[in-house]
Amino acid sequence: MKIRSHKELDTYKLSFSLAMQIFELTKTFPKEEKYSLTDQIRRSSRSVCANLAEAFRKRKYPKHFVSKLSDCEGEAAESQVWLDFALECGYLDKEKYNHLYQQYENVIGKLVNMSLQPEKWIY
Questions:
Q1: Which helix (H) or strand (E) element contains residue 63?
Q2: Domains defined for the chain, CATH in brackets
């Protein structure tokens, strides 16, 4: 089966789900975090998906494709850092933190595998 849309990628589906989980979670963050932690983690989590969509559309150019995947990886890692802060500030419990953090590890692993074998994604 040939993938025709970024929405068909497991990596996209997972990262989109994580961004939505973070959106719901951050609704419980204190108001004073609105323009700092809340905004930052929402942006970075959404950027994983947005950059993956861009990467998919640039897949006929391997260097551009890998570069955008690298951006995705960086945004996923940034989301993990914001999760670290949310945990330390007491805005989420350790179980939820571990779940989200591990899911981002999974996303990062998938992105690395895609970038190591860009020829599998070129049409």
A1: helix 62-88
A2: 10-117 (1.20.1440.60)
